[in-house]
Amino acid sequence: MPYNIAMVSDFFFPQPGGIESHIYQLSTKLIDRGHKVIIITHAYKGRTGVRYLTNGLKVYHVPFLVIYRESTMPTVFSFFPIFRNIVIREQIQIVHGHASLSSFCHEAILHARTMGLRTVFTDHSLFGFADAGSILTNKLLKFTLSDVDHVICVSHTCKENTVLRASLDPLMVSVIPNAVVAENFRPLEQGEPARSIAPNDIITIVVISRLFYNKGTDLLIATIPRILSSHPNVRFIIAGSGPKAIDLEQMLERNVLQDKVEMLGPVRHEEVRDVMVRGHIYLHPSLTEAFGTVLVEAASCGLYVVCTRVGGIPEVLPQHMTTFAKPEEDDLVIATSKAIAALRSNKVRTDRFHDQVKMMYSWTDVAQRTERVYKGIQGDISPEEFYGYYPGQGWEASGDRVRSFALIDRLKRYYGCGVWAGKLFCLCVVIDVLIYVFLEMWFPRVNIDIARSWPKKLKQKELADTSRNGPHRIESAS
Amino acid sequence: MPSLSDSPPSVPPPVPVETHPNRAVGIKPPRQQRTLPDPTRLAPEDAYYSPTLVRTRTGPASYDETIRGLNGSTGTAASVAALRPPHAVPVRKLRGTSRRRRRKGAWKKLLWVKQSYPDNYTDTETFLDHLQRNPRVRPYDFWPLVADSTVIVQHVCSVAIFVCCFVGIVQGRVNPVSIVCWGSVGTAMGWILWDSWVFREHGENRVAERAPEGDDGSSSSSTASSVMNPSTTRLNDQKDSQVHGLGLTMSHGETEPGQRSSNPDRRSSNSGLGDSCLQDAASFGSMNGAPSGSALPLPLYAAPMISRLSSRNRQRLSTVKSAFLIYCALLGLSPILKSLTKSTASDSIWAMSCWLLITNIFSFDYGSGKGAGATKFPASLSTNAAVMASTVLASRLPSTTHVFSLMLFSIEVFGLFPIFRRQLRSISWTGHVCLTLALVIAAGGAVGFTLRGGLTAAVVGSMLGSILTALAMGGCSWWLISLQKYKNVVTGPWDPARPIIRRHWD
């Protein structure tokens, strides 16, 4: 059955980025599957009010105070009135929050639970446990996630991290990876057999990343001169900007490598493919990465991938597309040399990469798997089936995974969050419930208009399903 | 489950050395069935039970304890079940895994394969596999900890002495000129001692340097200097240009004192009078190789025919010269400093100087100079805070002589004394302990004298001070050790990796 879903996050277009495109792609694919999806985000400069995107995707840009890097001010309750209004207006059943640094998403999950809605949270990033910022974020995450219905993580490493950070039941956390729109990342000549590389041909190594410390730019700076000195017929193309760009340029000047390394500066996401197809190898020296969408994009463009074995990266691509290295200078040089040698010996069938990646990752698949999560929390799949049923192994699917909306049960869950934090969280929840009661009295539901849904192409979809040709057409159209 | 408790752990649990970045490529080799969970790793259920500390080094004793904890938790599950989900994971881990595995085809920790398992499937074999708990924990011992705390005691005592001196000057009990005279005499003696140490060290350095001359230049000289003068290696770590500098040491080894040439010829323009007082304090330090973060203000004469002795003399001469410069600058600045914050209310002055001195104590570089970059703050922060505090305090003094004395004294106490203390500590431990004792007694006496006045008060104060300090040192050390059981550092593949980079292209 179709659901009414609200995606809530601080991060959405017009700001570019991985989370933003994830939300957009997932939403459009869910709409294709017959659901109604709206997106709630804060107002960006020149973007306030309601907007419709392709496919009837409705975006609410709520005016809100932005404090840091497009995250809104965490004011626990002030988002509630307008959120309630939107939810009632759009008849939302499931609230799906994204990104753990987005306070919008956390508040929405809290209020949605108070209003008796099912909630899902998607975590896109990895956090440590050591520094003060992480500790604070983790405590907040624990607050929100102690009463969430289900959590989605983008990789298994991310799942382990989230389970530890928020003390979750591992079975309540699903792993659904990101995907790429393979059509946007085609190699240059498709379908033809791969051009073989002669021993003295130029091999181009592409690096596309923001030039930050945690993206491993220091490693890159250390390895480039060594690779270039041992392989004369290698060129680099580096795209991206950031605080480490100066160090990179200094290295180029010191070693006089300007003619072998091309610095493109920042590139738009649409242009990434055009940069990628100019190279043979994609080098990714990142120090931490939850998923690494850019690796999939590079492989989809037919590039051989050299990357560090950190975070969720080892799970992303199969062995024959990648060479892994430790996050060490020497090992990265060795791995790159190996990759160059493998390409020179024409052992790697990079021409097949695109079709293989297309089989591995698609947003349609992601939407399907997310839909299963929605079904599970809405009770359309039985808890036994959703959480697994292992007879005779000491536990049955219990009632606690299906989170009840009774206030006392919610308070019990929040109370377990910590000695002081638990009481504080309980206080917040009680106030939230009181605000809800107040809002119901002063702004009764009956006075809120119901928004008309975007006219669905349901007929076509049904037709398409019967004629068996249709799904492809609809997917390629969207 | 019953077979668990009576099967004794034959081998002590291995400390997991395997980290995520090094883990074997691709699919893990099928391990033998893990009947007992490794206690050094977290099981999924630890996420919602308050973790008991398992030191990585403890043997079978804590191991049994963990098992008991596991058994107990499954036994009393009913009470917890109201809040937490049942413990599917540990039970399956112990019994059912291999059976299920054979039936269904192994689950792989990969995202690109389509698997027949649901998305929320949790594989007990690999889940939280690479998690490590307290991987680098180093248990503290009581006496070394107490010994290390003497450094802090020394600094706090010198701050206390300074404050007491100021109170004495303000209240007119102590003559400022006598304070500054005693301070200057002490500084001069300290400098002579320090100079002789450095001189001796140079001799040893040169001997050590000459021996491995055939070796690779940078490594040998850096090891030599790390033996003799630990602070140069620290500089080494901080500035990548140091390798180059040490190479220079090798080539000019005959003519140059190693430490001076280890600072590349980055002469800072020594302009500005207010700057120069700090500059000199710093130069005192950087000749020593102390991490004052400042460049050497002395010119680097690289004339090869000048003998070593005369170069030392020249160094001394220039130190005296800069000391004289500071003296004159302070003399000139004193009237200005006196009226600088005169219009500020006394309350604000007291509050401000308090905060500044607290900043000084907390941001002071207590490290020995060994090891790479120990402090987060620049060492200049604490010195600047202290000098600022004395500047602010100076406006409450009646005459220019008072101001001059206080400023000079503060430079001696906060700028030069720490360098001497650090050097003394690295040279002789007995001297260090003696100095600590003297400082504690002096500070106690000064506080007693300031509060009550009179010799008896001073004696009582120094006795009380020593006892209290000893108690505080012991108590804090014991407290820190007892707090160690709450240490629970969790590391895993989600932590940002530390890149290992060889700086070779400089």
Automatic annotation (TrEMBL), chain A:
<dbReference type="InterPro" id="IPR013234">
    <property type="entry name" value="PIGA_GPI_anchor_biosynthesis"/>
</dbReference>
<keyword id="KW-0328">Glycosyltransferase</keyword>
<feature type="domain" description="Glycosyl transferase family 1">
    <location>
        <begin position="199"/>
        <end position="330"/>
    </location>
</feature>
<comment type="pathway">
    <text>Glycolipid biosynthesis; glycosylphosphatidylinositol-anchor biosynthesis.</text>
</comment>
<keyword id="KW-0808">Transferase</keyword>
<dbReference type="GO" id="GO:0006506">
    <property type="term" value="P:GPI anchor biosynthetic process"/>
</dbReference>
<dbReference type="GO" id="GO:0017176">
    <property type="term" value="F:phosphatidylinositol N-acetylglucosaminyltransferase activity"/>
</dbReference>
<protein>
    <recommendedName>
        <fullName>Phosphatidylinositol N-acetylglucosaminyltransferase GPI3 subunit</fullName>
        <ecNumber>2.4.1.198</ecNumber>
    </recommendedName>
</protein>
<comment type="function">
    <text>Catalytic subunit in the complex catalyzing the transfer of N-acetylglucosamine from UDP-N-acetylglucosamine to phosphatidylinositol, the first step of GPI biosynthesis.</text>
</comment>
<feature type="transmembrane region" description="Helical">
    <location>
        <begin position="420"/>
        <end position="439"/>
    </location>
</feature>
<dbReference type="Pfam" id="PF00534">
    <property type="entry name" value="Glycos_transf_1"/>
</dbReference>
<keyword id="KW-0812">Transmembrane</keyword>
<dbReference type="InterPro" id="IPR001296">
    <property type="entry name" value="Glyco_trans_1"/>
</dbReference>
<keyword id="KW-1133">Transmembrane helix</keyword>
<feature type="domain" description="PIGA GPI anchor biosynthesis">
    <location>
        <begin position="42"/>
        <end position="131"/>
    </location>
</feature>
<dbReference type="InterPro" id="IPR039507">
    <property type="entry name" value="PIG-A/GPI3"/>
</dbReference>
<keyword id="KW-0337">GPI-anchor biosynthesis</keyword>
<dbReference type="Pfam" id="PF08288">
    <property type="entry name" value="PIGA"/>
</dbReference>
<keyword id="KW-0472">Membrane</keyword>
<dbReference type="GO" id="GO:0000506">
    <property type="term" value="C:glycosylphosphatidylinositol-N-acetylglucosaminyltransferase (GPI-GnT) complex"/>
</dbReference>
TrEMBL record, chain B:
<keyword id="KW-0328">Glycosyltransferase</keyword>
<dbReference type="GO" id="GO:0006506">
    <property type="term" value="P:GPI anchor biosynthetic process"/>
</dbReference>
<keyword id="KW-0472">Membrane</keyword>
<comment type="similarity">
    <text>Belongs to the PIGC family.</text>
</comment>
<feature type="transmembrane region" description="Helical">
    <location>
        <begin position="457"/>
        <end position="481"/>
    </location>
</feature>
<dbReference type="GO" id="GO:0016757">
    <property type="term" value="F:glycosyltransferase activity"/>
</dbReference>
<keyword id="KW-0812">Transmembrane</keyword>
<feature type="region of interest" description="Disordered">
    <location>
        <begin position="208"/>
        <end position="273"/>
    </location>
</feature>
<dbReference type="GO" id="GO:0000506">
    <property type="term" value="C:glycosylphosphatidylinositol-N-acetylglucosaminyltransferase (GPI-GnT) complex"/>
</dbReference>
<feature type="compositionally biased region" description="Basic and acidic residues">
    <location>
        <begin position="253"/>
        <end position="268"/>
    </location>
</feature>
<dbReference type="Pfam" id="PF06432">
    <property type="entry name" value="GPI2"/>
</dbReference>
<feature type="transmembrane region" description="Helical">
    <location>
        <begin position="403"/>
        <end position="420"/>
    </location>
</feature>
<keyword id="KW-0808">Transferase</keyword>
<keyword id="KW-1133">Transmembrane helix</keyword>
<feature type="region of interest" description="Disordered">
    <location>
        <begin position="1"/>
        <end position="45"/>
    </location>
</feature>
<dbReference type="InterPro" id="IPR009450">
    <property type="entry name" value="Plno_GlcNAc_GPI2"/>
</dbReference>
<feature type="transmembrane region" description="Helical">
    <location>
        <begin position="432"/>
        <end position="451"/>
    </location>
</feature>
<comment type="pathway">
    <text>Glycolipid biosynthesis; glycosylphosphatidylinositol-anchor biosynthesis.</text>
</comment>
<protein>
    <submittedName>
        <fullName>Phosphatidylinositol N-acetylglucosaminyltransferase-domain-containing protein</fullName>
    </submittedName>
</protein>
<keyword id="KW-0337">GPI-anchor biosynthesis</keyword>
